[in-house]
Design a protein that fits this description.
With 249 residues, the protein is α/β, with parallel strands linked by helices. Helix content is 45%, strand content 16%. The protein binds nicotinamide-adenine-dinucleotide.
Length: 249
Amino acid sequence: MTRTLIAGGATGIGAAAALAFVAEGHDVVVCDVNAEGLDRLTAQSEGLAGRVATLELDLMPVDAAARAVAFAADVLGGIDCLFVNAAVLASARLEDWTAEMWDHSMALNLRLPFLLTQAALPHLRASANASVIFTSSTGALRGHAGMPAYHASKAGLLGLVRSLTDELSPAGIRVNALLPGWVDTPFNNAFWDHQADPEAVRRQIDNGIPMRRHGTASEVAGSILYLASESARYVTGTSLVVDGGFTAV
Ligand SMILES: NC(=O)c1ccc[n+]([C@@H]2O[C@H](COP(=O)([O-])OP(=O)(O)OC[C@H]3O[C@@H](n4cnc5c(N)ncnc54)[C@H](O)[C@@H]3O)[C@@H](O)[C@H]2O)c1
């Protein structure tokens, strides 16, 4: 059994991953600021083989990492997989960006994965199949105007993966990044809200994806289970792109 802490999983990819873990008999703790989403997730998990425990928590403050890890280790009796998935997507014209907006994005998207890994380290060291997974994005490889902090933070995660891989591999702790492409979740709502003609923009985006459509959260979840599993025991320091071919062309 893989005991997993999911940081940010009340909706979207994190929730789909939680349900996929639980369906396969693994126990999961999900920390998220969205209490309603956590309740929905708990209800959806009923009857499945594993257990979901949830903690309503804003992961932005510095002390949130220690609180999330303490709760998860207590409930699960240890942590084998740390899956850091929460992020924020802020968009503005370059001249309208402030230092506060930049710091806000970086605190969640890049500092949190670092702090959670630090906090979870004693538990990961004690695990026979320890792994850390960060949700980066194909936005680490490509850029859109107006979202400098998002792209910089998601690219920064790839550097963090490499540094941690060098430091933690001798201890048997694997570290990998997941890079989803366009996935249908509430995450992109702010992006769609800013489009004059969202349907036309969506058609244009889908035409640029070889599979000609967005992915679903459950289509991404399988890759997270794989990275956490024994099947991936020699897979570390890498990026797994799940994007319907978006970045291949
Ligand atoms: N949807 C996409 O197209 C897409 C593409 C590439 C990467 N991603 C990445 O996937 C990850 C998950 O996003 P998603 O698409 O599933 O969207 P989502 O909005 O459904 O999931 C994000 C989760 O993080 C939680 N969260 C946000 N801020 C938080 C905070 N301060 N404290 C605690 N929890 C917080 C949200 O409540 C939500 O449950 C993100 O890292 C995102 O950057 C998404």
